[in-house]
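Fold this sequence, please.
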Amino acid sequence: MRKYRRFLLPLAGLAAALALSVPFLFWYQTWFGRKLSEAEIGRCLEPIARPRDMQHALSQLGAGMERGEGEARQWYPEIAALSRHEEAQIRLMTAWVMGQDNQSGLFHEALLTALKDPEVMVRRNAALALVRFGDASGRAELDRVLQSGTDETQVWEALRGLYLVGQPGDLAAVSEYQQKSRSVSGAVRAQAELTAQAIRMRTAQ
């Protein structure tokens, strides 16, 4: 019996280690907060990479671009190429990332193409990203967000976009959200008021 105990104790320790390491490995592989190395980013942006790995790399690069870091510039061709990926979630995330650098002609062109995407959420992300370029090409898409009114966060984002690029033709859709009878939050109503004011000021000028 003593002989078997010598084997049982190490096996018990191994089982405990596996019980801890398997969840850790799963977390390690799926958590976007884990910083990828340059080599890992390159592999994650390859067309044959898993969509989740692509999202991980895009998340890291987009966050860096938002902070004004230049790390992502070398990957701009790969990022723009992913705007045509077969997975809608990749195209959606890529549109957001490309909006973080409003000086890139490559991204600007790719976002204009994304405005014709078959997926509505990709088009909406592209329209919002184009606002950062001072490009009003996505106005019609932003108006459609207001007309649908199904998601308050999206409505608020659309109003913020139209604050910068809206035209008199957008006022009817915007004014709907200024009405107290409309069941929206105070934040949405306040943004609608600011957006309407900004459009009127641009028209007057």
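Confidence is low (pLDDT under 50) at residues 3-9, 14-30. The chain has eleven helices and no strands.
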